[in-house]
Amino acid sequence: MGTLLTVEIHHLRYFLAVARELNFTRAARALNMSVPPLSQRIRDLERELGEPLFDRSTHHTRLSEAGEALLPLAESVVSGFDAIPVRMRTRDQRADVRLAIPDVLNPAHRRQLSESIRALEGSYRFTLRQMPSLGMESALLSNSLDLAVSHLGTSDDRLSTIVLYREPLGAVVDASRFPGRTSLTLADLRGFQYLQGPRHWDLGSRRAEQLAAKGVLVDPEAQFSDVSGLLIFLRSTKSFTLAPVESATALALDPNECAVLPIDDLVATLTTFLIRRTADTRLDPVVEVLRHARVS
């Protein structure tokens, strides 16, 4: 079999016309050409492929076995070729934005963030990745992310940090511990065990030390991995954990089982940041929109 270097798109168009009509005269008429040059182009194609594409007789024209095999391939090539101008005009020319979001996010911020992303869809194509805040800095520096909504800031001068908002933390306790109370003090929690959550619940590296100094029991082994585990701890032991008062996790808890109560004399907040690579100025318009998607 010869090479296909001299087969051009018009050879395939001629073949498809004859395959469609199964008649050289009608095919030539449809192509606005005479029969002899059409027959010559088909013979040229057959010579290049090394096989006859049609069984010809004085009474009929049929596709040969090779013609049957070529038909879907030719249709695909010609349709793909014809679609090139349209695809070039309509191709997605939006800039890509890889955005990381943390596992715990304020519901109001989540809604505003979603609305901001949708408002930017005309110019940017977002790829979202949910991950712990602890891994976002390295992902930004390795260029596997473009932007990150994080609960941890950074001191790396290759990254820029914008504070979006701060939200207060409350004590998550079994509902039976403080019935009727709307807030607590640290004295109320003296003798309670502080439960540390999974990595994505990280609320500050010195939080446990701060609580221990106020008489709260801190055991590094007392750690839960999900809400179900937290509920078992709270119901079975004299314990509590901290969570943003208005987080999706806190709002999803059954008030008959748990209460999320502010601690009046504990300054405890969760800060949410927007982090980017300082040198990556192409995303300035995106940053300008996302920095205003915050909790007031």
Automatic annotation (TrEMBL):
SUPFAM superfamilies per the UniProt record, alphabetical: Periplasmic binding protein-like II (SSF53850), Winged helix' DNA-binding domain (SSF46785)
Molecular function via GO: DNA binding; DNA-binding transcription factor activity
A GO cellular-component term linked to this record: protein-DNA complex
Keywords associated with the record: DNA-binding, Transcription, Transcription regulation
A Pfam family of this chain: HTH_1
Keyword Heme: no
Gene3D superfamilies, per database record: 3.40.190.290, Winged helix-like DNA-binding domain superfamily/Winged helix DNA-binding domain (1.10.10.10)
Kinase among keywords: no
Domain HTH lysR-type intervals: 7-64
Family: Belongs to the LysR transcriptional regulatory family.
UniProt name for this protein: DNA-binding transcriptional regulator, LysR family
